[in-house]
Structures are given as C-alpha cells and as structure tokens.
Design the sequence.
C-alpha cells in the first residue's frame, strides 16, 4: 500500500521525472537504482525499501525485470549492525566491532550491485522476464 500511495500521490512521477534518465546507459541506470536501493535497505527494513522503491524504479525503467532486480538489490543492504536481523544477532553475541561488519558488508553490497546490474536483465530474460 505504501508503494501504491506514493504512486497515486505523484511523488514517484516527480522523482522519476526530476533526472534525465535517458542520458544514462541502461546498465548505468540500473546500477544507480540498485545501489540506491541497497543503500536505503542498509539503514531501514529491506521489505520497506522494496515496497516503496520498486514502484519508483518501475517509473524510471519500466522493464519487467526491474522489479525483480530491485527486490534483489534490497537484499544487498548489509554493512551495518541494523541492516539485517542476522547482523544484529551476531553483533549482540559480542566479540564483533562495527567495523567487522562494515567492510565486508560494503564489499558484498558493491559487488552484488555491480553483478546484478550487469547480469540481471540477461539472466531474467532467459527465464522469460
């Protein structure tokens, strides 16, 4: 309902129209969307990020594979203790510092965003999306 509300309010059209997305290559456009989605999910719920970001991304890139790629991108937000319940549980057990999650999480997030941006549309095309 949050995504639908953002769409009906016109906020998605406003944000999607605020940048000339046609100036970007499809891969660069997809990478920037996936990276923003991952960064948002690093500081808030993955589900909430996907809920409001998928309609926004679909307004910018209406390809059927965009929704799936954004959902995967929301799963890459993992560099902080608050990013995922698993991170919070491991950190709560003690013995880890924030930096112990930050660097591996950032590397995995960036690598995942690059990988899904470069290969996601082709892989999803193989399965019919």
Sequence:
């Amino acid at each position: 309902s949050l995504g639908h509300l953002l769409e009906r309010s016109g906020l998605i059209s406003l944000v999607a129209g605020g940048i000339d997305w046609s100036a970007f290559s499809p891969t660069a456009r997809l990478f920037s969307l996936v990276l923003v989605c991952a960064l948002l999910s690093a500081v808030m719920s993955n589900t909430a990020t996907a809920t409001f970001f998928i309609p926004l991304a679909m307004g910018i890139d209406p390809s059927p594979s965009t929704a799936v790629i954004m959902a995967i991108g929301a799963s890459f937000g993992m560099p902080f203790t608050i990013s995922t319940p698993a991170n919070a549980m491991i950190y709560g057990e003690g013995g880890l510092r924030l930096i112990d999650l930050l660097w591996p999480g950032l590397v995995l997030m960036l690598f995942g965003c690059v990988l899904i941006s470069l290969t996601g549309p082709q892989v999803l095309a193989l399965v019919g999306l």
